[in-house]
TrEMBL record:
This is SDR family NAD(P)-dependent oxidoreductase. The lineage of its organism: Bacteria, Bacillati, Actinomycetota, Actinomycetes, Propionibacteriales. Belongs to the short-chain dehydrogenases/reductases (SDR) family. The keyword Oxidoreductase applies. Keywords: Oxidoreductase. Residues 28-214 form the Ketoreductase domain. InterPro entries: KR_dom, NAD(P)-bd_dom_sf, SDR_fam. It comes from the Bacteria.
Length: 278
């Protein structure tokens, strides 16, 4: 992240020192979903280095095992749990294993996600994209949290961090399924947040702008301003220190308010842009 880009994001996006992260997560148990690559992988490495026991989940078990080995070789604690979040039975099995293996899970970083860049026309004969996006970005995380949260609430402590996207504030053409499913999870979390807060469980949502990972690579050039996966992990770690409820770049908030209040002109401008491109 260049200096000007960091300045554009504002001070709440700056990294905090490892010592402060250690105070927040040292000796705690942190589940990171989508830990096999990108933001999740870097978050697990960082939290493992800060003394957390990191529970790693994603489908690619070989990558999770290699990551766990790396964390352990540096003196940390990490355990891989391969599972497909889009498969309800696999999610139930994962939750059962996690609850059996660990008396407590202090933090869930709900990071696994699937992004689909596809127009409405191209989605017409690919409804499975809608089903799958919904399963990974909404139904799977809700199912997993529904199983894990009762114990957190009973202990009256914990935090859920939702790794979300600016597409919640600024839905854009060609990203309908992604925006809708990320927004659905955000709405669910906002709705349950008061119940969780009443029981001592904090919630955090981070609306990331572009992060250069395998997910964004097919769509966005690495020359565009964005965070690296490591920098995004530092933002996630920062929220475990600050327990901030919502982190949205100020310019995304502003653009969100403007486009919400001028949907007609915004959609007309987007349509003109699409027409020009095609
Ligand atoms: N990159 C960006 O510009 C950007 C911006 C805003 C928000 N985000 C959000 O950041 C999060 C992480 O994305 P990333 O950029 O780090 O991309 P990434 O490197 O592609 O990571 C996605 C992770 O999700 C896991 N995943 C996907 N489908 C899954 C499934 N069915 N079951 C279990 N795990 C699954 C993947 O693991 P397996 O393939 O091994 O299952 C992988 O570990 C996502 O929620 C994304 O929406 C990204």
């Amino acid at each position: 992240m260049s200096r000007w880009y960091r300045a554009a994001l504002g001070p709440s996006w700056s990294p905090v020192g490892l010592d402060r992260i250690r105070v927040a997560v040292g000796g705690r148990v942190v589940l990171v979903t989508g830990a096999s690559s990108g933001i999740g992988e870097q978050t697990a490495e960082l939290l493992g280095a800060a003394g957390a026991t990191v529970l790693l989940t994603a489908r690619r078990g070989d990558l999770l095992a290699a990551l766990a080995e790396r964390i352990v070789s540096r003196g940390g604690r990490a355990i891989p749990y391969a599972a497909d979040l889009a498969d309800p039975e696999a999610v139930d099995e994962l939750a059962t294993r996690l609850l059996a293996d660990h008396d407590r899970i202090d933090v869930v970083v709900s990071n696994a996600g699937k992004s689909i860049r596809r127009s409405l026309t191209d989605t017409a004969d690919r409804f499975h994209d809608v089903t799958r996006g919904n399963a990974v970005n909404f139904l799977g995380p809700v199912r997993l949290l529904s199983a894990l949260l009762p114990r957190m609430r009973a202990r009256r402590s914990g935090q859920v961090v939702n790794v979300s996207s600016l597409s919640v504030d600024l839905p854009a053409a060609n990203f309908a399924v992604y925006s809708a499913t990320k927004s659905a999870f955000e709405a669910w979390l906002r709705s349950v947040a008061p119940e969780l807060r009443a029981d001592g469980v904090a919630t955090t949502s981070i609306h990331f702008p572009l992060v250069h990972t395998a997910m964004s690579a097919p769509t966005y050039s690495t020359r565009l301003p964005g965070l690296t996966a490591r920098q995004a992990a530092e933002v996630v770690a920062r929220t475990l220190v600050t327990r901030q409820r919502l982190l949205v770049p100020w310019w995304v908030r502003l653009a969100g308010v403007l486009t919400n209040n001028a949907q007609g002109p915004y959609e007309a401008a987007s349509a003109a842009l699409l027409r020009r491109r095609s």
